[in-house]
Amino acid sequence: MRKTIILWITLCMSVTLFAQTDSVLFAAYQHEDMTVWKNHLESPSLLHSFTPSALLYEYGYCGYIVAEAKKEGKETLMPEAKRRVQQFKVHVEALKDQLPVGHYEMYLSAVYVYELRLHESIHPFKSMSLAKEATKLAPNDPLVLSYYGTCLFYAPKPFGDKAEALKWFEKAQKRFTGARWKYSWVREANEMYIRQCHEKLGQ
How would you class 163 by CB atoms within 10 Å of its CB: exposed for 0-12, middle for 13-18, buried for 19 or more? Predict the structure, then answer.
C-alpha cells in the first residue's frame, strides 16, 4: 500500500512538472523566445534519453532555426541548422516504434522539407506523399492534419494550395479541443495559419 501511494505521488509530480514545462514552452512560443526551447532541448535529461513528447518541440525548433539560417545576414546559423535537422532525423528513427500512428510519417516528411530548404537532399514528392500518408493513418489527429495543411500552405504550385490548406487547418481546429491541447504550440500555430489563409484568399 505504501509503495502504491509513493508511486502515485511520484506520478502526480511528474505530470505536474510536464504541464509546467508545456506552459513555459507555450509562453515562450507566444513571445517568440526560442532560446527557451533551445535550452529545453539541451537539458541533461533529454540529452540522456530523448522522448516522443520532446520530438514535437524539436520539430518546431528545427523549423525555426532553418528559417533563421535562410535569412539574409544570418548565414552563420547554417551549420547549426544542419546539425539540428540531422539530430532530429536521428531521433525520429530512434523513436519510430514509440510514436503515435502517423507521427513517424509526419516527422520524416518534415525532415525532408528541412533538408530541401538546406539543400541537403531533394525529396519534395516524398515529403508530400509522407504527409498525405500520415493523414490516412491518423485522420483524426490534429497534429497530423495541421502538419499536412502546413505543407500545402508553403509548397509551391502545383503542390501547394492555400484554399486546400485552409480546409486541413479547419479540420485540425475542430479536433484541438480539451485540456490536453491547452498549451499546444501547434494549436496556436494552426490558428495563425487559418488567419493567414483568410488574408491571402481575401476572405
Answer: exposed
